[in-house]
Amino acid sequence: MNRQNLSIALTGSGGSGVMTTGNMLLEAAAQAGWYGVMGRSAGPQIRGGEAAALLRVSSEPIESPDDNFDLVLAIDPGSFGRFVAEIPLRTDSLIISDAEGGRRSSSLPETPARLVDLPMKKLAKTVKGGRPNMIALGAVTKVIGLPEASIYSILEKLLKSKGADALEASWACVQAGFAAGADLPKVTGPSTNTESTQERWSITGNEAAGLGAVRGGIRFVAAYPITPATEVLEWLAGSLPRVGGVLVQAEDELASINQIIGASFGGTPSLTATSGPGLALMTESIGLAVCSEVPAVVLDVMRCGPSTGIATKSEQSDLSIALNGLHGDAPHLVLAPTSVTDCVFTTQWAVHLAESLQTAAIVLSDQSLGQTRAIVNRPADIAFMARRQVPERFEEDYYRYAVGDSGVSPMSIPGQAGGQYTADGLEHNEAGAPSSLSEDHFAQLEKRERKINGFDYGEHWADLEGSGETAVITWGSTSGPVREALSRLREQGEDIRLIAIRLLAPERPVEMAAALEGVKRLLVVEQSHSKQFHRYLRAAYDLQAEVRVLNRPGPLPFRPNEIIEQLNYWDEGNGNEGAMT
Amino acid sequence: MTNETACVQLQPKEYKSGVKPVWCPGCGDFGVLGSITKALSGLQIQPENAAVISGIGCSSRMPTYLSTYGFHGVHGRALALATGLKVARPDLTVIATGGDGDGFSIGGNHFLHTCRRNPDMTYIVMDNQVYGMTKGQASPTTGPNWEKGKLTPGGTGINPFQPLVIALASGANFIARTSSSDSNGTARVIMDAINHPGFSLVQILSPCVTFRPEQRDWKHMLVPSPKEPTSDPAQAARRLLRDHGLYTGILYVGERSVYQPKLEPGISGIEEFEEEFRL
User: CA of A317: how far to CAs of A86, A139, A297, in Å?
Assistant: First the structure.
């Protein structure tokens, strides 16, 4: 595939408008017929600090950052310096910066890239109410060859709420940017393609998860704000009332999880979204959902941990707590979307599974999926809906926790006469009455495990590609760069297998054995310092191949070339020493 | 999902599940169980249309002993479970039950915020000023000089939590105190609490005969409030701060609006959400 790509980083101080500029550029790229992703990186400050919009646009659908950036637009040199590690550059990359852009003039960090100066601050001052980020927008439009015509309508759309004066000032700045950009070196982007009839969306992972939840049937959400999950909750707050649902802002995460369990007990499919610290608070009650067999979905948009960690940046380090954080033997579901688009599918599927199996489902998204806006093809429609087994009529004695073959027992809903029972976090007998008898404990443990292990999850448990003797196994957001790396190798005639696990719990030993059939080398790729995914694989599966691990903590994302280099290094007969990042 | 069975008068005993309580002989909670069944019978609420929600503790066992729907959750979270249920299912009569430790210590934050939110439910707290299930530790309503708590051998040395004052300040819409020994009086107050819109708190002084045997004397110490219930929070506050926790009856009846989001669809289908993402 002849993919045409362009990666652009916009950096500035928080409040300098780089995210706005980035969103406008992404929108203009979309109008030019391109696909794209825009990730966000920010310091911890609410206002001020530093912020970066990390864009990649392409002629083909993409879901990974590229190896490095072609163009940087630094509103001020100092802020760019905070992102050097996150913005890898080549010698032919171009940095456009404003030496006078910062409050205090500071120099750019050492870089291999080409540098040009653009006095954005000074140019903005020539316009009443002008802002440097709009000069930047005009200049970048020129440098990468986007059609100028679309910019005005985008300004109109995205600045609607700011009033006519702001629009006029912005447009004047953009035009000044066009003029200044005309003299700058060009960085070629993909060729414009406005012929495509493919329906495309602009959506973030957090919005996609919200959409998947509503599509799956979620109608009650309890919410406590937490970065980087807040956008899911904000989207749901506006969207749920349109379909007869509701979001309640709770007093804390303990309330969130218990409110959704209460609402679900009442028959309404329910969800909460949080990040690591919130998930930790919720774990006791997730066990309650498991024990009382009340469906509940918890979306964890992961960030760097432990503790408060780095709230604004991504990491795959809540895997262990999601899998093993519940006390007692508490079988439950753990799922992870493998791309921004897949946040729709995986969240919707999680709702379907939690409802079908009357248990808790934890969905592990992360900051890099959740806060990335992507221009994608419209996600496919999926039929999975919340479908809870509810008894239609009641025998003389209704046993809420009747032990049957499937382990799923019909669940009565308050209001149904004859179905009354007490849902309980205490171990109970089939009728639901508390029991401390060993035989009741054993029977109910078996039931709760059987219903989850015995369910037919079909092909969705993992994304599988290729058939070679070398395989890369990964999960979540890391799937994007792995997929791109393997696709590049495939173009060179090298067939490497991909296993991107979507259903992390329960384990799928039969399916995994088939996926690993004939694999001699297995590279594990994960964004966790303590190799949580590798440990999980070792504990859950029989790995007969030679195994190596490419892991590192967040927030630096994996880039496709790193994965290719790792595979080549192994191919060249190098030992395991030094193989790990 | 309303039932269509013929309307026959349900007697209090028909609100009992038949499961034998774990409580000690003489426990005040037996009386409260009786009062709840009398109140449900008095209001003729169909058992399937009521849900009794609790956390952990002796008194939190209550749902199991009733023939209504019930949820016996984790420690301290009864009001959160109940809030979720009530918001999603406003058609149900929702009652939360529990003790002083569950409600005012581990569940303290939910207590404050449920009072503040004011959903239409009734919260029955069986207050015995001790953790009974764990065999006798000081609770948030225990006085400072009670020396028999094994975690606080010299007494807690700190003043007890004043649940009714805090409830008033937090926005509870109905506040009452009763004695578990007055089964019929308590039943009448619970009926009023259920009927009153918004969040109703009924503190029932319910002796722990095992770890606080001196509480048997409560029946001689508690007196009906000499005043009619007030709807003036300032007046209620003055009275509650002065009554040494010993006046019974309905003490405050508020007029706040009830928290209940509308649950009616604003548009026809989910397809319309796609508009905001489509380029």
Answer: 19, 39, 19
CA distance to partner chain B, nearest, from residue A322 (Å): 19
What are the tens digits of pLDDT across the range A337-395? Answer: 999 999 999 999 999 999 999 999 999 999 999 999 999 999 988 888 878 999 999 98
Residues 239-268, chain B: which have Cβ within 8 Å of A?
261-267
What's the pLDDT score for residue B1? 43
User: Amino acid identity of B226?
Assistant: P
A259, A272, A288: best to mutate for the B interface, most B CBs within 10 A: A259
pLDDT digits over B73-82, tens only? 999 999 999 9
Instruction: Calculate the CA A75 to chain-centre distance.
Output: 28
CATH number for the domain that contains residue B195: 3.40.50.970
Q: Find the domain containing A248 and state its range.
A: 202-377
Shared domain for A45 and A89, answered yes or no, is yes
A422–B63 CB contact, under 8 Å: yes
B54 → chain A, closest CA residue? A424
Question: What are the backbone angles phi and psi of residue A262, rounded to the nearest 5°?
Answer: -65, -45
Number of domains chain A contains: 3
Neighbours of A437 (CB within 10 A): 10
User: Does pLDDT of A327 surpass 70?
Assistant: yes
Residue of A nearest to B15 (CA): A420
What residues have CB less than 8 Å from B101, skipping those under 6 apart?
B57, B131, B139, B140
Whether residue A223 is found in the same domain as residue A322: yes
Question: B175 in a domain, yes or no?
Answer: yes
Q: Does the distance separating the beta carbons of A214 and B273 come in below 8 Å?
A: yes
Q: Any idea of the CA torsion for A454, A215, A250, A40, to the nearest 10 degrees?
A: 100
At A2-35, the pLDDT tens digits run 568 999 999 998 888 999 999 999 999 999 899 9
Interchain CB distance below 8 Å, A255 and B113: yes
List CB contacts (< 8 A) between A246 and chain B. Answer: 87-88, 261-263
A473-507 per-position pLDDT tens digit: 999 999 999 999 999 999 999 999 999 999 999 99
